[in-house]
Amino acid sequence: MEALPARARMYVTGVAVAGLLCLLPAVPLSSAPLSLTLPLPLSAASGPDAPWGAVALLAVLYAGCERLARSRHLGAPNPGGTFHPVLLAAAFLLPPSAAALVALPGALLTPVEQRPFLARRIWRAGQLTLAVWAAGRAHLAAGGREAVADGDVPAALGAAGASVLVFCLVLTLLDRGILALAGGVPFRRGNRAPRPECRRTTWRRTRRRPRRNTRQTTWWRLFLRSLAPVAVHGLAGLMMALLWRSPYGPVAALLVLLPMCVSWWAFAQYHRERAAHQATIRALVQAVDIKDGYTRGHSERVGQASTMIARELGMDDERTEVLRFAGILHDVGKLGVPTRLLTKDGPLTPEERRVIELHPEYGHEMVRGISFLGEARAAVLHHHERLDGSGYPYGLAGAQIPESARVVAVADAFDAMTSNRSYSRARPVPVALDELQRCAGDHFDPRMVEALVRAIGRTGWHPAVTAEDVRQPPGPPAPPVDEPADEPVAAQVADPPGARR
């Protein structure tokens, strides 16, 4: 635990001690019979009411399932909480202290991937023990044990709902506390003061923190975000408890886990496929960045701006993700352009410019076989088209240009104006937005431009290299490029004389 701040160590220790105190009433279990059959509940909270057999079976089941969910070959990324139904079933069936004991072996034996290992195991054990104990107390106070024993489904649903709320609330508050003490994340939304060790950071680095991240990590937002999946787990746990108390016994209760295991396996496969997609995209983007050092980071920023536009237009999450891919991969065709043209400091000749203008077609050929990209492939091909038909490669106009390409075109031009290039200096964000609005209708779709203006007005824009950053990109200084007075700046940056885009 030496890697944690002193306050965080004290917090983890306190949570672990509180968890142990919750387990103390379960000590009389040593004299209980080794049986899977549960006695009818009285009003007792612990002791002989909970047989060791049921506790051991649920504990082994939870530990085995959690270990399987985190295995290298079958597990999914961030599988925590996959088998919370087992813990909630224990809270519905057993006294609170005995139910808390079910979580202990799995929390201590499940592999930990990040340091400090011991502190993380202790924290997870203390957190789950407290959460299950609190859920069991809430279920007991709501009369849930009697309802489950009698098969009174409506009453059992109400008690299970109260238990799920308490379980989720305890997990959220404990998580928020450790984040506040170990990670410096403010516990409340209004607390935006920087940590002492961050007060010497530069203005630009401090400003790059997105304000919305602070809002998203507020404890009640975490609570609301995790309540729905925990509620589903609670329903599964209640089904286990009702079947366990039924004439069919524990075997029928365990069958409830089969559909959950199937859904978990499908979830794991989805994340594996998604990870492969992300790795493919990263490899392509890194190859472009290595080839054209002046635009390093440009692809990610265009992807970010495309995402902002898509969300502002109300697109669903799946399409927003596709547009992010489109923004990231829009320049992948540069891999087919000679490096000497991409890194040339002076203006391009007409012949060289024609070669540069082939990069959308090169890019489309490279990604056309990647099925998960969907309409992102059309954006790669048409992101240099203009509404007035003066773009390339096919001179499409108006509605002929795919919507995804119109989104990426605005994002691409905006980042080009706000980033240092070999042929131009970065411009301030307000100037770039003004130029985009001036070019809306001729070169860019006005809907996309206004969506970006609104999104940046609400959340801000913090590129890696901005107009306020006075550092020059590596390499010799670029000669100035004459800007025709009758052409808007956005149009020049989108396709300037001598541009490498």
From TrEMBL:
Cite the record's Pro residues compositional bias ranges: 473-482
Keyword Membrane attributed? yes
For this UniProt record, give its keywords in alphabetical order, as a comma-separated list. Answer: Membrane, Transmembrane, Transmembrane helix
**What PROSITE patterns does the database record attribute to this sequence?**
HD, HD_GYP
- Positions of transmembrane segments: 86-108, 155-174, 222-244, 250-268
Tree of life domain: Bacteria
What positions does the domain HD-GYP occupy?
273-468
Q: Where is this region: Disordered?
A: 466-501
Gene3D superfamilies attached here? Hypothetical protein af1432
Q: Which InterPro entries match?
A: Cyclic_di-GMP/3'3'-cGAMP_PDE, HD/PDEase_dom, HD_domain, HD_GYP_dom
Q: In this protein, which residues make up the domain named HD?
A: 295-417
This chain's protein is named: HD-GYP domain-containing protein
Source taxonomy lineage? Bacteria, Bacillati, Actinomycetota, Actinomycetes, Kitasatosporales
